[in-house]
Design a protein that fits this description.
Helix content is 75%, strand content 1%. By secondary structure, it is mainly alpha-helical. It is found in: Cell membrane.
């Protein structure tokens, strides 16, 4: 066997090994989350409706007093209320910044803005949380009241955190559009804004949707920065200034205090399974959008 064929076989074997390793890790993670996440229903006897819709959280309640209460409704609501407004604010802002970078800014401006976006993406989550805690929370308390630690502080911090993801993916999607689209639009007498609004943005729709969905996935999965500014009160929020708790916050705060195999610990695994299902849902949306665009 020649040395070239030997190197080819080694390379092919190594890539297959890496593929098998990633596949095995993925299956293992899904198996662990599904097996542990469903234990709260099949072992501890908690109904899915009670877990999802109830807000009564007393996982350590003795059996003599009625057993543990593990309603995660307030946490699920908190995750949605913090994440969705953040996406609603950041999606149009991020897409417009991407349009400016690709279509309007001069070359030196593109480099400066792209470097700024990359820097925002590289900042650790704890820094965002610290800045929010030191600057944003007192600002909200001083001007709006409510103590500052609130739903409002959480979604504002998240809005900034997911911006780099939306900008980067949107910028990449706009840059790969064929130049013929723009030239044809200008040839028909369209202005720059008409070309952007009626030609470029529709053509990059799949990339823009992917950017928003990835931003949404990051918003749902963020734990530390949000936990530092939302107050972590385990009740239904009553206003935008109310303290709130998210699924990720409860998992990070309670996992170290719960005992493996208890209803408390199993409920935390179930919350992790919910987050995993949300991530899989985001991936499914991206696949469906890309397939729909490919059919067109």
């Amino acid at each position: 066997m020649s040395s070239r064929h030997f190197v080819d076989r080694v390379g092919r074997g190594f890539t297959l090994f890496c593929l098998a390793l990633v596949f095995l890790l993925t299956i293992t993670v899904i198996y662990v989350f599904v097996s542990k996440g469903l234990a709260i229903f099949f072992i501890n006897g908690i109904s899915p409706a009670e877990f999802i819709f109830s807000s009564r959280w007393w996982p350590g309640r003795p059996v003599e007093e009625g057993g543990p209460l593990v309603g995660a409704g307030a946490f699920i609501t908190g995750s949605l209320l913090v994440s969705m407004p953040a996406v609603a604010v950041s999606a149009p802002l991020g897409i417009m910044v991407a349009v400016f970078i690709v279509e309007i800014a001069p070359e030196w401006g593109r480099q400066v803005l792209q470097s700024a976006v990359d820097m925002l993406a590289a900042i650790p989550a704890v820094v965002y949380g610290y800045v929010g805690l030191v600057w944003l929370v007192p600002l909200i308390d001083r001007h709006l009241g409510g103590g500052g630690l609130s739903l409002l502080a959480g979604f504002l911090v998240l809005s900034v955190m997911i911006l780099p993801t939306i900008i980067s993916v949107s910028t990449a999607g706009l840059r790969v559009l064929p130049l013929e689209l723009k030239h044809a639009s200008y040839a028909l007498g369209s202005t720059r804004w008409q070309t952007i609004r009626m030609v470029l943005l529709p053509a990059a729709r799949s990339s823009l949707v992917t950017a928003v969905v990835l931003g949404m996935a990051r918003a749902f999965g963020e734990a530390l920065a949000v936990q530092m500014v939302i107050g972590n009160t385990r009740e239904w929020p009553t206003s935008i200034l109310s303290p709130v708790t998210t699924l990720t916050s409860v998992i990070t705060m309670d996992m170290g205090m719960s005992v493996t195999g208890t209803a408390w610990n199993n409920a935390l695994w179930t919350m992790g399974l919910l987050l995993l299902l949300m991530s899989l849902g985001h991936i499914l949306v991206i696949r469906l959008v890309m397939r729909k665009e490919a059919v067109r």
